[in-house]
C-alpha cells in the first residue's frame, strides 16, 4: 500500500507538518483496514526512500505500508536494516 500526498514534493522531509500528520493518520487507517480484511497479517514495515542513494525511484513523496505475515521470509529480523551489509541479521 502507498500513502501519497497530493502536493508534489520530492520527499517526505519537504512536506509541511500538517501533511506529515495526515500521512501518519492515513497509515493508521490503512493498517486498521488491512488487519480487518486479512487476519493473516502479523506485522508491517513502513518505508520512505529519500533520494536515489536510498533507493528512491519515483520523485514524488510516498510512504510504503507493507503487510507482513509470519513466515513470509526466512529471516525477517532487521527489517529495513537489511540494506546495510552485515546489519540485517542480529
Describe, in plain words, how this protein is organized in 3D.
The protein has a three-stranded antiparallel sheet with strand order 1-3-2, covered by helices on one side. It has one helix at residues 17-37; strands spanning 2-3, 41-47, 63-69. The longest helix is centred in the N-terminal third of the chain and has 21 residues, at 17-37. The two termini are 27 Å apart. The chain contains one helix and three strands. With 90 residues, it is of the alpha+beta class.
Q: SSE layout and pairings?
A:
Layout lengths: L1 E2 L13 H21 L3 E7 L15 E7 L21
Antiparallel strand pairs: 1-3, 2-3
Question: Briefly, what is this?
Answer:
The chain is α+β, with helices and mostly antiparallel strands and 90 residues long. It contains one helix and three strands. It is flat and about 35 Å long.
